[in-house]
Amino acid sequence: MENIKLGLKENWKQFTILVIVNAFVGGMIGLERSIFPEFAESIFGVESTTAILSFIIAFGITKAITNYFTGRLPNKLGRKNLLLVGWLLASPVPFILIYATNWNWVIFANVLLGLSQGLTWSSTVVMKIDLAGEKDRGLAMGLNEFAGYSAVGVIAFLSGYVANKYGITPYPFYIGIFISIVGFVLSLFWVKDTRAFVHKESTTDTSEKLDNVFIHTTFKNKTLSSVTQAGLVNNLNDGMIWGLLPIFLLSLSFNTESIGIIAAIYPAVWGIGQLFTGKMSDVYSKKSMLFWGMLIQGITILLIPIAGSFYALAILSALLGLGTALVYPTFLSAIAQATNPMQRAESIGTFRLWRDLGYAIGAIISGITADLFGVEYAIFLIGIITIFSSLIIKIRMPDKIKKEDECIEPEELKQALYQNRKIQIIDVRTKEEYEKFHIPNAINIALSELKDKLISFDKGYQYITVSEKGGGRSSDGAKLLNELGYAAIWLCGGISKWLKVNK
Predict the structure, then answer these.
(1) Are 411 and 249 in contact (CB under 8 A)?
(2) Would you list the domain boundaries of the chain?
(3) Superfamily of domain 407-501
(4) H helices of 374-430, where?
(5) Model pLDDT, residue 28
(6) Which of 20, 284, 411, 414 measures 20 to 30 Å from 243, CA to CA?
């Protein structure tokens, strides 16, 4: 464990492989994104909106439940093992869609796809968070979601193009055969398990453990539950876009290629945008990013039924992608920041359970509303729900995700040292002051020299800065370390208080 280091730079090779793998995971979703309503009507004669959306309902419920158990099982079974099982479940999906004799086979294929996505996407998310450490967690999620959803957009466009040129089946599904084989091979031979990184981080993390991860993530914890409801609504409107947007565009007499382009812009902007919004979530307020992202989504959705031209709908698709890009990596980095490392996978699994149930809930609400009142009314309803979700973020979610103590009390430090936690005390006073008296095992680096000597520091440690009375040099030293990506806090009361406590 001593050789294990957290951070994107330190683990760039393995992280890059996981990004590539997640692009293939996303590609399996993109396969259906633009062609399924026409596939349902032309091949199977399914015309009811609710019936057409039944494939999204089957996918969403299955993926949601699988997400939850994928969150509970990785510490026991291993992340890589779950990833490989997910790819094995994906491999028959394109063949079933090619040879399906009735709509029930299509539903079954999407059950398998939901199981596969729950295992593969959840595993790659958790593994990247394990590798990244706290400093670059948002960037890690941005890169992860960029790869996945850019692939959704690319494959949505490609499958629409192939369907328009060669027919709705079987040629578009050949893409899925290629994706599932390459994804499995990459995962089998090049991906490494990351459980050891969790144990490494847990030696320095001070987050309290939740007594019931499911209840806190869903209801009790204001940060976790606010993020979770927004995740559900985000995928609720995504489920609507997935199912109803192609139907709405067909009603405007767009051909399959044009539908593919409009449907592809949304996930493509969503994916590319996360290259920037992921890092933004490490720097700017996560609450603000979630509020504005959900609000932009809601307003954009309300405008879709009003737009009629190809270019207007393309612009709205891009805006919807922008709003989603603001929230998607921020969801996961916020959940990760608010939970203890040993409970992180379970909390993410719970979040992803509710988030992906949004697919099913969105498809049900959209389908019933569309059948009763029309597609336009279904789109309006989902837009209103999305705006309401943004207001919950604004009102309920705390500004700070995790309470950050300014300093640590001498009694707490003494207890942590007694527990043999990975702590290094740095005395930032001058050499003369240090030699008069210092805390046992503290190293002396004057504040003026601290920045120049950081190259030898291990980011796996918790650093405690101390000075004479605390709050001056020690506070500045801890701030400097934190800005440069190290976990640091200063000693309350400094050496003076330490001496009083340890007489």
Answers:
(1) no
(2) 12-198+210-396, 407-501
(3) Rhodanese-like domain (3.40.250.10)
(4) 375-396, 410-418
(5) 93
(6) 20
